[in-house]
Structure formats: structure tokens, C-alpha cells
Design a protein that fits this description.
The protein is built from four helices and eight strands; from the N terminus they run E-H-E-E-E-E-H-E-H-E-E-H. It is an alpha/beta fold. Strand 5, helix 2 and strand 6 form a beta-alpha-beta unit. The relative contact order is 0.18.
Length: 176
């Protein structure tokens, strides 16, 4: 069951990735949606980005990656992961992904089904509702969800992709 939720900055996520390196070597770890910033400790990865494009994205730290091509599954993470048995993994990771997907409930359900423990990290919803530096837009344009934790449960609040931070609409902006 997923019991850890990390809301916040990159430093917290890097600390968690370093903690993964201390897991027993035999523990199986899956990184779901991690291709763009892979957790090196992952034994398996499920992502829409294929293994062949992995070298285009950064790693979380200096550790060598463990995952090999035959354990890289290119798939839609919003669909049931029937290719994994229940509780196959000792630990699962879903970092900076859940706010982007169309069906986060299915994803959380599958992570809980396939792993004994794990963590989900996401942008703090307060940050997501603040104006981005040098921009008129609020938050990240591609995020679909504002995510909060309440009483041990995740809340998903639909986020329109283009929240405007000004009180008066700029006609030049909207008509161009």
C-alpha cells in the first residue's frame, strides 16, 4: 500500500531517491512514469516513453541505473497493469507524474495492488496555484490535477489547464 505522499520541492524528492538506494539489494522496485527523471534504483519502469529514448532525460542522482530494456514496459499507466502480479514489488515510486495523468485513481489503485509500499510525489497544490515567475499563468500548464492529502487519503481536484492570474483579461493576449 502506498503510504507516503511527498508534496513539495525537488530536494525532498532527491532525498527520497537516495533513501531508495539503501533498500536491500534483493527488493524489487518499480518506477511508474519515471522516464523523464528516472530513479536509478528502479528494477522495472512503466512509462509511455520507450527505453530507447532514456538517454535524453536526466537521472535523479549519480547512481548507475539498474533497469534493463527487458524490464522496461512501454504502456499507458492509467490502465490496469495486468502484466504485474499482486504485491510483486517491495516498493513503488511515482514521482512528479500523477498530476499529469488523466486517471489518477486508477494509477493509485494499481500502485497499491502491485507493491507492498512506496511513495508518490507531486507538486504542492499551493505552489501549483501561484503565478509562475515571469508569467501571467498559474502553475504548470500541462498539469490536470491539484493534489492534496487529507486524513491519509489523496484528494484530486480538477485543474483547468490555463488559469489566468490577472483580474482583467488582456484582449491582446486572448485575441492573438
Amino acid at each position: 500500500m502506498i503510504t507516503q505522499y511527498i508534496f513539495g520541492d525537488e530536494k525532498q524528492i532527491v532525498e527520497e531517491s537516495l533513501a531508495l538506494e539503501r533498500l536491500p539489494y534483493d527488493d524489487l522496485v518499480v518506477d511508474v512514469g519515471g522516464a523523464m527523471c528516472l530513479m536509478p534504483r528502479a528494477d522495472y519502469v512503466v512509462d509511455k516513453i520507450p527505453f530507447e529514448k532514456l538517454d535524453k532525460y536526466p537521472k535523479r542522482n549519480a547512481f548507475p541505473i539498474r533497469v534493463r530494456k527487458e524490464r522496461w514496459i512501454t504502456a499507458d499507466i492509467c490502465k490496469p497493469m495486468k502484466y504485474f502480479n499482486d504485491k510483486l514489488f517491495n516498493y513503488s515510486v511515482c514521482s512528479q507524474t500523477i498530476e499529469d495523468v488523466r486517471d489518477p485513481i486508477c494509477l493509485v489503485s494499481e500502485l497499491s495492488r502491485i507493491s507492498e509500499a512506496g511513495f508518490i510525489s507531486t507538486v504542492n497544490w499551493r505552489y501549483e496555484l501561484s503565478v509562475m515567475r515571469g508569467s501571467r499563468w498559474v502553475g504548470y500548464w500541462h498539469h490536470r490535477w491539484l493534489i492534496n492529502e487529507r486524513d491519509g487519503c489523496l484528494e484530486f481536484i480538477s485543474k483547468p489547464p490555463f488559469l489566468y492570474s490577472g483580474l482583467i483579461l488582456d484582449s491582446e493576449l486572448w485575441l492573438s
